[in-house]
Amino acid sequence: MSQGHLRPLDVWNDFRPNIAWWWALLHPYIERQRVILEHPRLLEWFEYLEREMQRLDLRLIGKPYVDAETLEEAIDGLTAFLQREHDATLGVVPMRKVAATPEPTQA
Q1: What angle (nearest 5°) sits at the alpha carbon of residue 74, between those of residues 73 and 76?
Q2: pLDDT, tens digit, for every residue of 63-102?
Q3: Does residue 2 contact residue 45 with C-beta atoms inside 8 Å?
Q4: Helix 8-36 and helix 71-90: axis angle, to 10°?
Q5: Which position has the higher pLDDT, 98 or 20?
Q6: SS3 at position 11
Q7: How far apart are CA 78 and CA 50, in angstroms?
Q8: What integer pLDDT is reported at residue 67 of this predicted model?
Q9: What number of other Cβ atoms are within 10 A of residue 85's Cβ?
Q10: R_g of the chain, CA atoms, integer Å
Q11: Is residue 73 classed exposed, middle or buried when 0-12, 13-18 and 19+ CB atoms within 10 A define those classes?
Q12: pTM (two decimals)
């Protein structure tokens, strides 16, 4: 995008949720690595991409992008998916959770 090969609006339409998710996940680590490595421009292209998406958020929807799913929920969901895939390769059949039995009411 910074080289002019992709139009910012196309990237925003197709990849905005993914860019926001990865930036939220990696931003703290990128900042720490910039300090540790004394390399303030480390992954600056990624930061540029996120900033451009933020600019488009304000222009197109009038507010910052907020994913309906929190980062924690997304990680939990992906972890569960990977566990199911791993279990399937091993032939493990998942057990369904048993529904809670309602307490009998006293009359």
Answers
A1: 65
A2: 988 877 777 888 888 898 899 899 889 888 777 665 566 6
A3: yes
A4: 90
A5: 20
A6: helix
A7: 22
A8: 77
A9: 9
A10: 21
A11: exposed
A12: 0.64
Please calculate the CA angle 8-14-19 and round it to the nearest 5 degrees: 75
What single-letter amino acid sits at 17? P
Which residue carries 């090969």 as its tokens? 5
DSSP alpha helix (H) spans, 1-107: 8-36, 44-61, 71-90
**């996120």: which residue's tokens?**
50
Sign of CA dihedral 56, 59, 63, 67: negative
Contact 67, 20 (CB under 8 A): yes
CA-CA-CA-CA dihedral for 52, 54, 56, 59, to nearest 10: -140
Instruction: Supply 44's token pair.
Output: 């600056």
The amino acid at 29: Y
